[in-house]
């Protein structure tokens, strides 16, 4: 029987997942990573630690399942997007990786827009330059660590460093590559114009592949460290959001993925490279060949509820808090929450944005505040939802849920009511690692294409219908929600 291995190099851990040819998950193993913040706004990790953790997770899942490595037909990769890994001529790591949530590069973003032109940059890459993306990080190293920059020979993303350790090859999938914002979105490859304008040698950039394509084979050295068989093909895979979309079946226009994790993400596949004119939505290549996608990201979704519980009710469980919220009517009796606890990305690319509880009165209880948190996150998702619909995807047929926040039936209902859209849960809960394993399987012919793989392995488990009785109150509250950020924006800098 054929088996496929998915590896997910996330910010918190390296995860290994093993599936069979029916898509059944046979086992998972995870090994944690350390995170470093040597200065305010900095976020870094040691790439070698990813590799040690990945190798340990592979060994653990092989031991746990007892599957002979000879039956593993391919490996798929996914992981945190946008992180910068710099290697020298001999493939040695030059400095700690600068991660997706690092915020040191705003001046470099401004410089990118100055050199290329903001509108032209959006036209080429599909995005504005943001501190989280890879391109401004490269400029930061050039400006602040010239001795490191002078030794650079290879630029990789986190999971692609693991690919290099597994195979000895420098390669990258087109989905994650487009997330560097050094890509020509339409051409699905590196933009000569952007690289030239930013002074980044094209020879530093790896070859790019569609998510299902083979990028190399497990080397003898990697086999000895991981317990894998030498020669297993390693597929290109995709960034965590693209592989996660494959993992819930968001691989056709009209079906969106909606994730309520620490951050909130709405992911919409497109059959052509659409661009939101102001760059408020991310526009990247999909891990599924021949597709692109829109993605909107709010930085504090379930993270808002986590902060609220930890700060104000640490003695209560989430279930207890949510039971109190369930007794509060829709609209929280006039209490509105702005979920900008970590700044914001979509629709407001504003690192200075701050959270707000607006409308507090003596009548409001802890239950009201909890429900306002849930509704405020849903309003933030509606901002993204409306942007996507207004950018060429009017016919959204279905939203498929994932993430820890969607375990709450109350929160799912609130999101359905505010979006005025049907929501579905699915049978898979392993996200990106599962999607990466499917991509690897498609590449080896286990399924005809990515769509077929999803249809044969992903099942819809529960439907959440919106309640029309809640529509009017949520429409009124959403209007107020939308008015608050423009009113408060000018005050945020004064709070620094």
How would you characterize this protein structure?
The longest helix has 25 residues, at 366-390. It contains 17 helices and 23 strands. Helix 13 crosses helix 14. Helix content is 38%, strand content 21%. It has 2 domains: 3-237, ATPase, nucleotide binding domain (Nucleotidyltransferase, domain 5); 249-496, ATPase, nucleotide binding domain (Nucleotidyltransferase, domain 5), CATH 3.30.420. The N and C termini lie far apart (59 Å). Strands 17-18-16-15-21-22-23 form a 7-stranded mixed beta sheet. The protein has a 4-stranded mixed beta sheet with strand order 3-2-1-5, sandwiched between helices. Strands 4-7 form a two-stranded antiparallel ribbon.
Brief overview:
By secondary structure, this protein is an alpha+beta fold. It is built from 17 helices and 23 strands.
Secondary-structure topology with pairs:
Blueprint: E1 3-9, E2 13-20, E3 25-32, E4 44-45, H1 47-65, E5 72-79, E6 85-87, E7 97-98, H2 106-116, H3 118-125, H4 134-144, H5 146-149, E8 154-156, H6 158-167, E9 171-173, H7 174-178, E10 183-184, E11 189-190, H8 192-198, E12 207-209, E13 214-217, H9 220-226, E14 233-235, H10 240-248, E15 255-260, E16 264-270, E17 282-285, E18 292-298, H11 302-312, H12 318-326, E19 336-338, E20 356-358, H13 366-390, E21 398-402, H14 409-419, E22 423-426, H15 431-443, H16 450-457, E23 460-464, H17 471-492
Parallel strand pairs: 1-5, 9-12, 15-21, 21-22
Antiparallel strand pairs: 1-2, 2-3, 4-7, 6-8, 10-11, 13-14, 15-16, 16-18, 17-18, 19-20, 22-23
Helix pairs in contact: 1-6, 2-3, 2-4, 10-15, 11-13, 12-13, 13-14
């Amino acid at each position: 029987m054929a088996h496929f291995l998915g590896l997910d190099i996330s910010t918190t851990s390296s995860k290994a997942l093993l599936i069979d040819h029916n898509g059944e998950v046979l086992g998972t193993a995870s090994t944690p990573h350390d995170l470093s913040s040597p200065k305010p706004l900095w976020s870094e990790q040691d790439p070698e630690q990813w590799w040690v953790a990945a190798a340990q997770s592979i060994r653990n899942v092989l031991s746990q399942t007892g599957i002979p490595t000879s039956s593993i037909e391919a490996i798929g990769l996914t992981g945190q997007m946008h992180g910068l890994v710099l290697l020298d001529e001999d493939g040695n790591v030059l400095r700690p990786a600068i991660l997706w949530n690092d915020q040191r590069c705003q001046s470099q973003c401004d410089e990118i827009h100055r050199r290329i032109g903001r509108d032209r940059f959006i036209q080429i890459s599909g995005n504005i330059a943001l501190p989280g993306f890879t391109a401004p990080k490269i400029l930061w190293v050039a400006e602040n660590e010239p001795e490191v920059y002078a030794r650079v020979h290879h630029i990789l993303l986190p999971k692609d460093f693991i690919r290099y350790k597994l195979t000895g090859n420098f390669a990258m999938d087109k989905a994650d590559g487009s997330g560097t914002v050094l890509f020509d979105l339409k051409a699905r490859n590196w933009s000569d114009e952007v690289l030239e304008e930013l002074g980044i040698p094209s020879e530093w950039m790896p070859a790019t592949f569609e998510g299902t394509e083979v990028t190399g084979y497990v080397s003898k050295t990697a086999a000895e460290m991981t317990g894998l068989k030498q020669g297993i093909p390693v597929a290109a895979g995709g960034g965590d959001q693209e592989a996660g979309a494959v993992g819930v079946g968001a691989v056709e226009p009209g079906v969106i993925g909606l994730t309520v994790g620490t951050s909130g993400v709405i992911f919409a596949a497109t059959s052509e490279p659409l661009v939101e004119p102001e760059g408020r939505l991310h526009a990247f290549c999909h891990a599924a060949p021949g597709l692109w996608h829109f993605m909107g990201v709010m930085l504090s979704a379930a993270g808002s509820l986590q902060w609220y519980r930890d700060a104000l009710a640490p003695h209560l469980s989430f279930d207890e808090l949510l039971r109190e919220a369930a007794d509060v009517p829709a609209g929280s009796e006039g209490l509105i929450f702005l979920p900008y606890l970590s700044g914001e990305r979509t629709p407001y690319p504003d690192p200075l944005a701050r959270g707000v509880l607006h409308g507090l009165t003596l009548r409001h209880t802890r239950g009201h505040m909890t429900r306002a948190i849930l509704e405020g996150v849903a309003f933030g998702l509606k901002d993204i939802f409306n942007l996507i619909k207004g950018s060429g995807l009017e016919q959204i047929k279905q939203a498929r849920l994932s993430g820890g926040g969607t375990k709450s039936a109350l929160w799912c209902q609130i999101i359905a009511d505010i979006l005025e859209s049907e929501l579905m849960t699915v049978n898979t809960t392993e996200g990106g690692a599962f999607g990466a394993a499917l991509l690897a399987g498609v590449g080896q012919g286990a399924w005809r294409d990515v769509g077929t793989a999803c249809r044969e392995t992903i099942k819809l488990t529960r439907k959440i219908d919106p309640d029309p009785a809640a529509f009017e109150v949520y429409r009124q509250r959403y209007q107020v929600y939308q008015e608050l950020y423009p009113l408060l924006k000018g005050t945020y800098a004064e709070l620094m």
